Amino acid sequence: MKHLLAVFLVLFSTEYCARSAPSRKRSPVVAEYVRKAKDAWRAEKYDQALVQLDMAIGVDPGDAGLHNFHGVINLYFKGQHPAARSDFATAISLAPRWAFPYRNRGWSYFMQSQCDAALRDFQKTVDIEPSQGFPYFTMGVVHYYNRRYEEGSECFALGTDKDPSFTLNAIWRYLAEAKLGRQSREQLLSSGDGKAHHAESNTISLLSGEMTIDAYLKDKLEVDGTSETAVPKPEWSTRHRKSEAHFWIGQRCLLMGEEAEARKHFKLSARHGAATMCMEAILSPKELSPLK
């Protein structure tokens, strides 16, 4: 997962969440249950999706991917943290060298402010995927929201060193350094030089002041209808893009010392991103807490 869109949009992908653990093939019967679960999930019929997954697990209880998918629905779409963590624990027991269930369980702990437990799970993903940028990002985020900005900055810097194309670490390092009073606008701008995805480049431009808030919001929410191959965006995609846009606008407002405006945008981010697995919606309540 090399780019910001890949990181965030993959969280919505049924292919990502429904995938089997490495080196495991599914029988046609199980695959059909999974297909029905994915269809129900896309239709936002989460209880029906869980029923289909229960049927699949009954056929093949040793498939870690089924338990992980079950946990994803319980966590991000139903808010059932204990049930979700039980699902992820089962997946981990079946595939202990698979990073996804550790990551998902870590987000559950983080969302419930059990940060030491979150760090343990995120550290495990670092151990499993040491050359990837995303595991270091998750570690850094936990430190950041516990006001351990030095540790967070170090994690983001290490993630950048391991995987320079994962520009999100550079963006978050800038935010951590800003909290420490030593951010470098030039360093932030250079992180988008020839390496960043379009969405990341625009986020960098927003935070650095190179792009106005209005221009950023328009770019984020604009849907290209001119292409003959253009297709309507699903509703969850629209909600995600709105959540992401308002989150980063909130960060820009914080950098400008406009806390009231920041609060407004973080509230919009949380509202639009509800029940979409949107990371910005997970992080927005953390931003709102000290602004109340």
Counting H and I runs of at least 4 residues, what is the number of helices? 17
CATH topology of the domain at 1-100: Serine Threonine Protein Phosphatase 5, Tetratricopeptide repeat
Class computed from helices, strands and strand pairing: mainly alpha
Radius of gyration: 19 Å
Q: What percent of residues are in strands?
A: under 5%
Q: Please name the CATH architecture of the domain at 1-100.
A: Alpha Horseshoe
How would you describe this structure to a colleague?
This protein is mainly α. The protein has helices spanning 4-9, 14-17, 28-42, 46-59, 64-77, 81-94, 99-111, 115-128, 134-145, 149-162, 168-179, 185-190, 198-208, 213-221, 235-255, 259-272, 279-288. Among the domains are: 1-100, Alpha Horseshoe (Serine Threonine Protein Phosphatase 5, Tetratricopeptide repeat); 212-224 and 232-292. The chain has 17 helices and no strands. Helix 9 packs antiparallel against helix 10, helix 14 (213-221) runs antiparallel to helix 15 (235-255) and helix 16 packs antiparallel against helix 17.
